[in-house]
Amino acid sequence: MRRVALVTGATRGIGRACVELFSARGWSVAMVARDSHELARLEGLLGEGCVAVAGDVADPAVSVAAVQAAVGRFGRLDAAVGNAGVTLARPIEETSEPELDRLIGVNLKALVFLAQAAGDALRETRGSYVVVASNKGLVGQRGSPAYVATKGAAVQLARALALDWAEHGVRVNALCPGLVDTAMLRSFADAQPDPARAWNRLAREQPLGRLALPRECAEAVLWLASPASSFVSGVALPLDGGFTAQ
After folding, report:
1. What range does the domain containing 190 cover?
2. Does the annotation count 129 as an active-site position?
3. Which of 29, 109, 213, 229 has fewest C-beta within 10 Å?
């Protein structure tokens, strides 16, 4: 039996690593992202074991279409990975309403939309829902309060859903990485007056003295998504500075 995962934010960073790892481990994958060109390229690389849906996860119709595509192509859905996210390093006094709406739309509402769309399919397989949040949602961070608030909400959503879905055998967990070497983080560093110095500072501030890698996060996501996992549903798993699930 070939298991099926759905991954949002599938073309970059942790999401891209998840797609590649799930596929390499024999899963079929439904990929969701805004970049239709890169989705098409990934489809070409991965072949028949994948299906792509282009769209903005802040639109509830995109999650519905993605679940329908996964079940329609592969007949089932075993794991949903709510990975898509946006960041904003802005003091609260300077955060605009459109920026706040965007943060809430992608970092929180999209997770709700995915849960609504995937719930029935996950109950049928007694599957898993993995929310990719952030350690900032557990401990906070200076300079980005609105972003931190959405990640804290994502963690609490996972905890509450874990309680609601436990009776159906569906496990829900939040993965909370520290800083990860992604294009999003590099864009932040590049915007600083001295990008190289900023990048080195970010790495030094991590407990292990380096940034986590997308593949390491993907290994943890795969472990949480796999039915053999004995992980207790509803617990937030922090990854500070790098972690590989064995």
Report:
1. 181-211
2. no
3. 229
